[in-house]
């Protein structure tokens, strides 16, 4: 792997969400206020926490790190509700089967408790006691041992399972997990395993999404000892998750905005520190070049990291060793990227389309009802232009036929490259 040759134990520009671990916590930059807002909602009521923001802005990461920090804080101080971050986030598909989904959540929750238990260092003596009752109940629960065995059995049997004969085993398993959760988390203020349902916007139509969520309301969202956080695109809570049946069950969304530009350098420094395995490590990308990409991508973290990784791969296609990096690599790569993006859409960017695109870039994210500032009287009149720009990959809109005010159209990373091309070379255009 190129990064290994350069003195890193792993790719510093991976685009997966930050995990709920010490490593993830160290990589998180900024976000103090969002962390506090999410935690406060969890602490103060058993309602479902909702988090909204553009794709790639850092929603899943911030929830993961919040849950991890809450968990380690309670381990350290013995104070407060016990929150245990679930091992991985969940996603709903349009054809989700509520029972199957519930079973998969309970298996994951049980597995999470077992793994966390194993990671907490055993104290001297046989029983573990702290001054935190939820933590004590968790550390000393006899279920940990018995579950390790039975989960394996259920885990293996799960995929090949037929309907006959498995009903009893399934319900026996479910009941045992529910009992265990009730023991560790007997009241709504004892905490719980923090589970995320991610990317709610992937649900293609409002109706399917509402149905799926509503079906889970009684069977899953009310389970004691599991605390829910729903994440999705801007406006998704209003557009998808609010329905009479869920009304009163959801917190108002915590909005995750673009991370301020002033944090860009720190993100880079943190990653270098966390991923290098030798003092002599060296990347072809400098801190100021990272910040330049950050500016071009308007702070969308997933796009920024992905572009950095692209550049590093581009370099590794050309040279093997770190002492062969050349100073003008970055400029050459960037020019190539921007030109490729621009020339692939050039024929589509007729004057009217260009105007719409430039206005879109000013807004970064907008909705069809903003049509007037684009010079159109109705959303319908603007629609064809938006479709064209979408077809060439400069804009992306989330589907929501029911709410035209929802800000759901955003500029893509290709769009930002074209924008940068126009900024750099506008005179010659
Ligand atoms: N505050 C942050 N500091 C550093 N890196 C971050 C931060 N937030 C997100 N990231 C990184 O940005 C990328 C996108 O984050 P993610 O949480 O998956 O976004 P979202 O869930 O909003 O789509 C991930 O690779 C993640 O590691
Ligand atoms: Mg996410």
From TrEMBL:
The lineage of its organism: Bacteria, Pseudomonadati, Pseudomonadota, Alphaproteobacteria, Rhodobacterales. This is Orc1-like AAA ATPase domain-containing protein. It comes from the Bacteria. InterPro entries: P-loop_NTPase, WH-like_DNA-bd_sf, WH_DNA-bd_sf.
